[in-house]
Amino acid sequence: MSGMLEDIDARIAAVLAADGRCSYTELADKVGLSVSAVHQRVRRLEQRGVIRGYAARIDGEQIGLPLTAFVSLTPIDPAEPDDYPQRLLPLPQIEACYSVAGVESYIVKVRVASPSALEALLAQIRATANVSTRTTVVLSTPFEDRPITVGGATPESTTRAEHT
Amino acid sequence: MSGMLEDIDARIAAVLAADGRCSYTELADKVGLSVSAVHQRVRRLEQRGVIRGYAARIDGEQIGLPLTAFVSLTPIDPAEPDDYPQRLLPLPQIEACYSVAGVESYIVKVRVASPSALEALLAQIRATANVSTRTTVVLSTPFEDRPITVGGATPESTTRAEHT
DNA sequence: GGTGAAAAACATAGGGT
DNA sequence: ACCCTATGTTTTTCACC
């Protein structure tokens, strides 16, 4: 296989998924390589697009965006070109856009300040994308953005042995 | 108001949401404060829980988890205590869990290696949580995890002026 | 809150195995 | 591919405003 991920790369990815600001020193310690070897691998992972970037996880409730919702989109005119994601991209309240199998075509995840802001956003979505919408309001988020687990590689699998 | 976010903290959060590995030096430059002032503010944001942590964004397709789905959960026994999130927590394939308003009670987002892995996971979810499930398979993800925009504060709003 | 400077830790590049 | 060493940067703490 060509695109498969080596075990050690999987562990690096798992560690960084759990702690994006982990230092190369600590990372090296955790996966059992030297700092430079780890650094090299991380750069390759970034280059290959396995690591797409780094982000701080922000608590939406504390920054004035307490209302999250999932909005399912159904095209009104089936003859239209399918460029919905592009049309939705300019709306910054839309955090994610998924093309899905099912009665509806897309699901987007949105974050807004209030019910009236959601109302306004839905109107914008319908207008800019020419779709009908079905909205599911999130009441609470027990957990979110959990670090990936790839092939049994959890962040705390290995600790480097001393080599003195 | 007590919990409201200052403008400069909002900008810090926005920058770190867009680039979680941004150095304090660069951050200080972008928001127009000294390195130590920014560092102090970031620590306070972390402490207050505004910044919940940092994560590398991993491309699921490249690490052997190409299949994403949203699974809606409906409790079978309405008399049961509502501890579904706790019961789902041990399943690492579940990346997020939302309590929602609507016909169903929860929506969880899952990542798996294959259709058969999805089938197995759904069986596990039904068994451990005593729910019925409705699954929407993600065909593609035009965009995801876009950095937050809080009160007009985008990462590239301000650059520090030289003070020589 | 904010600043600036010093010490410690870290990132990064080069050369060797 | 990996390790080690050397250099420049960044983080972190601290005394002061």
UniProtKB/TrEMBL annotation, chains A, B:
Listed InterPro entries: ArsR-like_HTH, AsnC-type_HTH_dom, Dimeric_a/b-barrel, Tscrpt_reg_AsnC-like, Tscrpt_reg_AsnC/Lrp_C, Tscrpt_reg_HTH_AsnC-type_CS, WH-like_DNA-bd_sf, WH_DNA-bd_sf
SUPFAM superfamilies: Dimeric alpha+beta barrel, Winged helix' DNA-binding domain
Domain HTH asnC-type: start-end pairs: 5-66
Keywords: DNA-binding, Transcription, Transcription regulation
Protein's GO biological process: response to amino acid
Keyword DNA-binding: yes
CDD domains the record matches: HTH_ARSR (cd00090)
Gene Ontology terms, MF aspect: sequence-specific DNA binding
Listed GO CC annotations: cytosol
Record-given protein name: Transcriptional regulator, AsnC family
Organism name: Nakamurella panacisegetis
